[in-house]
Amino acid sequence: MKGNWLVAAAMLGTLGWTFAARSPAHADAIADSASQATTQSDAINLSRDLVRLGIAANNLPPNSPTTDARPLFQAALQYAESHPIKRITVDRGAYYFLTPENSTAYLLLKSLSDLTIDLDDSTVFFAGAFLQGFAVVNCEHVTLTRFRADFISRPYTHVQLTAIDPLARRLSYATLPGWPDPVEFNGLAQSTAPTNPLGFWALDFRDGDILPGTSRMELTQPIASGALDLVPSNAPWVQGPTLSTFRPGDIIVVFVRGGQATISVAGGDSITVSDATIYGSSVQGILFNSSSNGIVERVRVMPRPGGLISANAGGIIFVNDAGANHIHNNFVARNLDDALAIYETDAATVVQQLGPRQLIVDRAAFRRFPDGTKVNFIDPATGNELGGATIVSQQPPDSVPPVFGGAVTVMFDADLPTLAAGFGMALADPASRGQGSTIKNNEVSDVLFGRGVYGAGNIGLTVAGNKVGHTSFAGIEIFQNLNGVPLVLIPTPPAHDVTIHDNVVRGSLGPMASGSGSQIAVGAIEVATTTPKNDFPASSPNTNVVIERNAVIGSGRSGIWVNELSGGAIRNNVITGWNQHPELPLNGVDAQTRALIMQDSSQALVTHNSSNLEIDGNVTNPNAVAQGN
């Protein structure tokens, strides 16, 4: 595993992928083209044109750490709203967003259309990491391209371990040159991340890699000078035997998780983020929410030079996919949650059935279900999706935005099945559940706490041609979670019509521990549903999932593990080496589920609670090969 993500990054050129770091000749040619383009009436170069066009009193100089780029970008966007501007660019350099535009974002792009923001391979430094960097809200045909994103005050630091007290769960540390003391995190007010509480966490690294058998460890707040105290937990990696394996000289990465994504897209259609590098985030590197026809391509989410981690949560994430979104030709390494994901959540939870056509529901976060929306219902005990009806009216009326988590009385056009409190309400239209979306030809390396590729509730998702390296959870997983945690975790519907083909999954499930729950760390490729108790129901809510022509190499547990699936195929896959890490601890599951996972880890291919599956042409070899990425 050592250095695999660095090797993978170096190999990207051999894959024919072009990222923001181009050859000087190529970059200069693009710059010349950009210069010519800015002479046109439909383009603005912020470094040259602001004064000439009367947009601002000064142009935006590159490489000026005391110049706040935000007001000048904001002025240019306002100008573009009332003029036929199609392209905004800058001279290549570094730009500093020293103040936010509002309480949630450094720069807001709202209700814009037909606009490209091309930053000419520049680096953008946001003052802090807990607000959205670029927030794209309800835009159409907008592209962000050719930039690097970093922070002046980063949401993580590195210290050197000097002593360990396993009984007290205390890690003593010394600061390292070039990295701030983690006590500086104590000054982060909760208002820094108003929608997402801040948590302090630590990871132990030795020789550049996470210490085997360990995972992220929550820290008590505030941090005392020179000492990191761990929050008591039943997790095996914060107990004395594991803590005793820590050594003075190890590097401890201390990170703050919470806040908002570096690049955030909410609503809208045909938004593209391309040719960019994201050097971390307090949560996701890139997050799309309730958007359609979006594209993220040729983006790297990876540690900045000299760092050991990238995003403190997910890499490139699409949630509540409104259809035909695409994650293609990207590279994600060293993040601390799922690397790539397209998933759906329930839209609401049933509180009470007032009549055959009337419900009271609690909205899931800010999810909308306007009148005319067809919905189905999810049994929380089995995960089964029950046919529903179309919404004809609601009180309070649909609004933008709706009340977060608010109660809604909903009327339907037809009689509903009998629904108890706790049933989920999910959108039924395939186009509203990601139909036509794809995750293709990406590379994932060393996901320290999460899955390589994750899908849930999708209808018509394709996962193909990806290379997934070490992950603590499944390398590729289609997973229905029925366990809702208020303000934290929203249940998901089952998945239908999903294809997983021609991927290479190498070294999943170890040597790092699987973290919060072993139910999502059973197979390198996994399909499953879990109940609110984190066990597996004897049902088959997911339908028509095809897993074919994949190569699974060196899995820590099973190679391919499928549960709760009706219809589909597992065919022509090659599984080489499994159960490579029997020493990994099991966490967050009951005794029955623990026994099941231990039993199944010794098998290459496992199915449970499934029917009408074609299982044919799979090749297995118990001898693992070298696990380089």
Quick structural overview:
The chain is mainly beta.
Mean pLDDT: 91
Tally of helical segments:
5
Total E-strand runs: 45
Q: Please give the largest β-sheet.
A: 21 strands, parallel
Q: How far do the termini sit from each other? A: 8 Å
Helix/strand/pairing category: mainly beta
| Helical percentage | under 10%
**Radius of gyration, in angstroms, nearest whole number:** 24 Å
What best-fitting shape do the alpha-carbon axes yield? globular
The portion of residues forming beta strands comes to 35-45%
Detail the poorly predicted runs. Answer: 1-31, 33-39
Walk me through this protein's architecture:
- With 629 residues, the protein is mainly beta.
- The protein has 5 helices and 45 strands.
- The strands form 4 sheets. The chain has a 21-stranded parallel β-sheet that branches. An 11-stranded parallel β-sheet has the order 4-6-15-17-19-22-31-34-37-40-43. Strands 8, 9, 10, 11, 12, 13 and 14 form a 7-stranded antiparallel β-sheet that branches.
- A hairpin with a 4-residue loop joins β8 (156-165) and β9.
- The chain is globular, with a radius of gyration of 24 Å.
- The model is unreliable at 1-31 and 33-39 (pLDDT under 50).
Topology readout:
Layout: H1 4-11, H2 24-37, E1 43-45, H3 69-81, E2 87-89, E3 94-97, E4 105-110, E5 113-126, E6 132-137, E7 140-151, E8 156-165, E9 170-175, E10 199-206, E11 209-210, E12 217-218, E13 227-229, H4 240-243, E14 251-257, E15 263-266, E16 269-278, E17 286-289, E18 295-301, E19 316-319, E20 326-328, E21 331-333, E22 340-343, E23 348-355, E24 358-363, E25 374-378, E26 385-395, E27 407-412, E28 424-427, E29 438-440, E30 443-445, E31 453-456, E32 462-464, E33 467-468, E34 476-481, E35 496-501, E36 504-506, E37 523-530, E38 542-548, E39 551-553, E40 558-563, E41 565-571, E42 574-576, H5 591-600, E43 605-608, E44 611-616, E45 619-621
Parallel strand pairs: 1-2, 2-5, 3-5, 4-6, 5-7, 6-15, 7-16, 15-17, 16-18, 17-19, 18-20, 18-21, 19-22, 20-29, 21-30, 22-31, 29-32, 30-33, 31-34, 32-35, 33-36, 34-37, 35-38, 36-39, 37-40, 38-41, 39-42, 40-43, 41-44, 42-45
Antiparallel strand pairs: 8-9, 8-14, 9-13, 10-11, 10-12, 10-14, 23-24, 23-28, 24-27, 25-26, 25-28, 26-27
